[in-house]
Amino acid sequence: MDSFDEIYKQYYKLVYFYIFGLCGNRDVAEEVTQESFFRALRKINSFKENSSIKTWIITIARNVFFDYCKKKKIMHDRDEIFTYLNPYPHEKEAMQLC
Hints:
Elements: H1 4-23, H2 26-43, H3 53-71, H4 78-85, H5 91-96
């Protein structure tokens, strides 16, 4: 497995633009991206290599984003969050921007 520094450098922009695609807000995207990598660093030993690092880190970022929305009381469930915040109709379209 790559060092965490390498993972950060390789996937930072991907995570940032993925989250930015979901929320359309640079500050939120930056905050969520930083928290995502912090959580990933804490959980790196639980990474199972049956999936890719990319999939794992994007999943963490998506969950951090949903936690952020709940914490800020933007919405209560994922469907509401996407309806309210997502300028794109589907998550897959946001992912294509990465």
